[in-house]
Write a structure and sequence with these properties.
Elements (H helix, E strand, L loop, with lengths): L4 E6 H13 L15 H17 L3 E5 L7 H5 L12 H4 L2 H10 L4 E2 L6 H14 L3 E5 L13 E5 L5 E3 L1 H8 L6 H8 L14 H11 L2 H6 L7 H9 L1 H11 L21 H11 L2 H7 L9 E5 L2 H9 L7 E5 L16 E8 L2 E6 L7 H4 L6 E3 L2 H9 L8 E4 H8 L8 H9 L7 H21 L3 H21 L2 E2 L1 H26 L8 H11 L18 H8 L3 H20 L16 E3 L9 E3 L11 H7 L2 E2 L5 E7 L2 H10 L2 H8 L4 H10 L8 H15 L4 H8 L3 H14 L1 H17 L1 E3 L5 E3 L8 H38 L4 E6 L2 E6 L4 H13 L10 E6 L7
Parallel strand pairs: 1-2, 1-4, 2-3, 4-5, 7-10, 8-11, 11-12
Antiparallel strand pairs: 5-6, 8-9, 9-10, 13-16, 14-15, 17-21, 17-22, 18-19, 20-21
Length: about 850
């Protein structure tokens, strides 16, 4: 009959080793949105789940180290004195490890005055005598002395390695019962066991193999031929015997233990999910699956005008009402022809929701347009656009779950209603407007409360929510694109693609698929014998990525032409051919979607189509911009912040030289060239100014000397000299960068000028690449994120002023630091001044904000 098996987890030992092992890997560190480190808990959790899934333990316990001195410290005060303090980012995770074990219903064992090793040893021997097999889960070599016929050790860190007696001999060179003897002779730096002076690992093994034990070696020391070993044994008997006592696990410690108390139990799934939720292990929550929704859901359709009126009339005047509006894609066919299709969902309390069909939406107009009735939506902007299809002007929508979620944790992937339902309610969101409204009303209060508790209410009310309404109006307006000009560009690009294709084939000596990385790599590196890069692509094939080809392009014409070909094909497919097909046939305009939660920096993104990646510095990009035009007879007004991130660098760093330069209206790149290269401003050449510009923006984006050297094509030491000279002339910048990195390392988050936060999880990563990227992000985000906040403030104020003055002009696009408007001729000058004032007055800084405003017949020519 098979013996039952008990698993004993060396909890602290495993956590410490896993924590430090992860630091040697290329894995990023992990933190919650609030900056709480979580990687040790995550590793431990995964080990437990893997262990229980693979071996389905009948008995299991997690043994913790106890607080207070043990008998070893009493005998040898310096025992474990060499061990460093537990890292702070590990200490804060220990309570979560305990909660994780409790929710998994794995018993926690700890006994004051006894080390975990001794507790595990004592339990292992008792269980063995009671007819159990024992599996010790640890990576501690000390535990190997416990192994015998019925005790084994499982090391999950070393590829699930199992140790039996034979494996111990293979690893340690001695039998399990001789491990303490080995450690007594060679010592153990980790536990500060002194050992025998002058006897190392090999010498200790040889002595144990020859004499069998420490005691025998000491008694027969005179037989040892090697003088150093012989004298060490003869002169250090008590030290060596003490070392053995320190290294020997005491299996007789007096602890109370009951095998029945460690019988395996099913986890408390609800409690486990709560721990996962607090630690933001959202993928693990999803793996557990949603809890069965046992709450009664009262969903129904309001099928008459009287039913709609009665439902709305029964809602208390001050109650918050969730509104969910079906998109056209959710309707069967055209939503406005399918009169019976549920179009709007309403919920004033969790678990109760009603739907209103398209044919009855008009009955909701007074409620939806009443600013005194409090309403919440998952996405206020999208709700605004959807209701605009009924020519309803929604008011009173002051709570936006998507914006709340993004403020709380700048995670673009975590803001959808489906994701919020999974992560915060442990609920799979069903299709339809009733579940959406129900979920929205249930999430509204806790999200709003967290926003208030984190101090984000002001950002929400002064920037995020007002901007949602501004963006909705921009999306409704759209922008004209000239399809005739696009067709001309497409034909021109076709000709250019054919020309480049022929030239590449001629240089390669044959035709091939230029778009295939495998075929291109074979042609370039096997047939043309170009220098093979060390970078690899998919499947370990030699990479033909842009950065690889750019390094080769200066010396190899074929690489330069392939880069030109790729850019041409991308621009043609992404914009020139695609944009005309996206023109709305009803409005004749292109209506991009602006996303407030699409970038962790806080910048707006756009989609369907993405208009923010049209290159501005290439001739082809400018040609594409020329196809963006105003309505007939009007003009485009284009405004662009001048060097806003460098101005913000001056503001944050309080650098006297930078502040003076911007206040005096100097060309900042010329001033930097004069400072860095030690020449008078009038002697700054175009080349020196270009290098200074690269240094200026390199500082903003954390460019290293290696990166700057590659960008400018100069030796690395020369690039380092530029950077050193920059910081010598602008010491305030260096101080601000260092201060910012220190603050973010302490808090785990970086902040913009208005207080918007972004978690930076890798500041303490033991992987230098991950840590370096985190430090660069910590410095750049306050600049880029603040720039994003300032242009948002400008957009809100400009839109309000246009509306207040009753102008016909309208804001059409935002592209990073640039705004596009269209206006009739008679309003051009007023709009130009209004926009410039709105952008430059967005926020008071140490240096002036400058906006360049131009007017033209198309986006390219607006000057």
């Amino acid at each position: 009959m098979a013996r039952p098996r008990i698993f004993l987890i060396d909890t602290f030992g495993f956590i410490f080793r896993a924590y430090h092992a992860r630091g040697r890997m290329a894995a990023p560190s992990m933190r919650t949105g609030a900056g709480v480190p979580t990687e040790a808990v995550y590793i431990f959790n995964n080990m437990l789940r893997k262990l229980t899934a693979a071996y389905k333990p009948e008995y299991i316990a997690s043994v913790f180290e106890s607080a207070g001195p043990t008998f070893r410290e009493q005998e040898f005060a310096e025992y474990k004195a060499n061990r460093p303090e537990t890292p702070p980012d590990l200490t804060v995770q220990i309570p979560y490890v305990r909660r994780l074990l409790e929710s998994m219903r794995i018993p926690i064992l700890e006994y004051p005055g006894f080390e975990a090793d001794d507790v595990i040893g004592a339990i292992a021997r008792r269980a063995e005598q009671a007819g159990f097999d024992v599996a010790i889960v640890s990576s501690d070599k000390d535990m190997l002395q416990l192994i015998d016929e019925h005790v084994s050790m499982f090391n999950p860190i070393q590829e699930d390695l199992w140790y039996d007696a034979a494996k111990v001999v293979e690893k340690m060179g001695v039998r399990p019962e001789q491990v303490a003897d080995l450690l007594a002779l060679k010592g153990d730096a980790i536990d500060n066991i002194p050992g025998a002076p002058g006897i190392g690992d090999k010498g200790a093994r040889d002595l144990i193999e020859r004499f069998g034990s420490v005691e025998a070696a000491l008694d027969r020391a005179g037989e040892v031929e090697r003088k150093m070993y012989r004298e060490s044994l003869e002169q250090n008997r008590e030290r060596i015997l003490m070392s053995k006592r320190l290294a020997t696990i005491d299996v007789t410690v007096p602890i109370e233990f009951n095998l029945d108390a460690v019988r395996a139990q099913a986890p408390d799934t609800a409690a486990l999910k709560q721990v996962y939720r607090e630690l933001e292990f959202f993928s693990l929550i999803e793996q557990l699956g949603p809890e069965e929704d046992t709450r009664p859901r009262d969903y129904a359709a309001l099928e008459t005008e009287e039913a709609v009126d009665a439902f709305l009339g029964a809602i208390p005047a001050g109650a918050l009402v969730a509104v969910a509006v079906a998109s056209r894609g959710e309707a069967e066919g055209d939503m406005f022809e399918a009169e019976r299709h549920p179009a709007v969902g309403l919920a004033a309390e969790a678990g109760v929701a009603r739907s209103v069909a398209a044919g009855l939406v008009e009955r909701l107009r007074p409620f939806l347009e009443d600013p005194s009735r409090r309403k919440v939506a998952h996405d206020v902007k999208q709700t605004h656009l959807a209701l605009a299809e009924w020519e309803i002007e929604p008011r009173g929508f002051n709570d936006d779950l998507m914006l709340y979620a993004f403020l709380l944790n700048a995670d673009p992937g975590g803001c959808s209603l489906e994701m919020l339902a999974r992560r915060r309610l442990d609920r799979k969101l069903d299709a339809g407007v009733e579940p959406q409204a129900d979920c929205t009303v249930e999430l509204a209060a806790p999200l709003a409360r967290e926003v208030d508790e984190r101090g984000f209410r002001s950002i929400y009310e002064t920037i995020d929510l007002p901007l949602a309404h501004v963006l909705a109006r921009m999306e409704e307006r759209g922008i004209r694109v000239d399809p005739v000009e696009m067709r001309r560009l497409s034909e021109m690009m076709d000709t250019e693609v054919q020309r480049l294709t022929g030239e590449i084939y001629a240089l390669a000596g044959r035709s091939f698929n230029i778009n295939s990385p495998q075929q291109l790599g074979k042609v370039l590196f096997e047939e043309m014998h170009l220098p093979v890069p060390v970078k690899y692509g998919k499947g370990k094939a030699v990479s033909t990525a842009a950065d690889v080809l750019e390094e080769l392009a200066a010396d190899h014409e074929v690489c330069r032409k392939v880069l030109d070909y790729r850019q041409l094909v991308k621009l043609k497919g992404t914009y020139v051919d695609a944009l005309p097909a996206l023109i709305n046939p009803r409005t004749g305009r292109l209506h991009t979607s602006f996303n407030q939660t699409g970038a962790a920096t806080g910048r707006l993104s756009s989609s369907n189509p993405n208009l923010q990646n049209i290159p501005i510095r290439t001739e082809l990009g400018r040609e594409i911009r020329a196809a963006f035009i105003p309505r007939a007879g009007w003009k485009l007004v284009v405004a662009d912040y001048s060097q806003i991130e460098l101005r913000l660098l001056a503001h944050f760093s309080k650098s006297d030289v930078l502040i003076e330069a911007f206040r005096n209206g100097e060309d900042i790149h010329t001033r930097t060239a004069a400072e860095v290269f030690n020449v008078p401003p009038l002697m700054v050449t175009r080349e020196l100014r270009g290098r200074a510009k690269a240094v200026n923006f390199g500082i903003v984006y954390g460019l290293s000397a290696f990166g700057l050297a590659a960008q400018l094509g100069i030796p690395r030491h020369e690039a380092q000299t530029y950077i050193d000279n920059y910081f010598a002339r602008y010491p305030g910048v260096r101080q601000w960068i260092d201060k910012t990195i220190a603050e973010v390392r302490a808090s785990g988050v970086t902040k913009t000028l208005v207080g918007r936060e972004r978690p930076i999880p890798d500041m303490d990563s033991r992987n230098p690449n991950a840590r370096g990227f985190a430090e660069r992000t910590a410095v750049n985000t306050p600049l880029q994120g603040t720039a994003a906040d300032l242009i948002k403030l400008a957009m809100i104020r400009i839109e309000e002023e246009i509306e207040r003055r009753g102008l016909q002009a309208g804001m059409l696009l935002q592209v990073h630091d640039e705004l596009l408007f269209e206006a009739p001729p008679e309003e051009i000058e007023e709009v130009r001044k209004l926009v410039k004032a709105g952008m430059e007055g967005a926020h008071k800084l140490e240096v002036p904000l400058i906006a360049d405003v131009g007017v033209g017949d198309n986006w390219r020519d607006a000057k």
